[in-house]
Amino acid sequence: MKISSGSVEETLKLGRRIASSLAGGEIILLSGPLGAGKTVLAKGIAQGLAVDKNEVLSPTFVLLRVYRGKMTLQHFDFYRIKNPAEIAALGYYDYLYDEAVTVIEWPERLKSLAPEEFLRISIVPGVKNRRVFKFAAKGARYKKIAEKINENTGDRHHH
What we know:
Helix content: 25-40%
Strand order of the largest sheet: 1-7-6-2-5-4-3
Number of domains: 1
């Protein structure tokens, strides 16, 4: 499924809609080039979980930031990771299977550590502020979430 956005505000709104489809414990992988809008989408998800979006920064230098909202949001950014062993050393698995919502930027760095089930959102930048968000769900639970997000989208964004 694909959803397009024409502005930062629409991307934030999409993030809020994704959040409203979550129950806690989900893993969301955000893929896309630098500047594609991964952190903006993460901010929208945070907003939807009642975290102040202004608190949400790109965690590039920190690898992980944890935010408390009506659910906890764990925001990983593996951009600077050279090798998956560094991720394992973070105690990454202890975070993963938790009640928290986990958002991972640069999930490609996980390689063999990638979770078995997840919702992957690949962001394809277009001209100006246009973005296409491609959703791929792995696992029955995530397919349901993707359907829910799709239903909540309103028809004008459907492809």
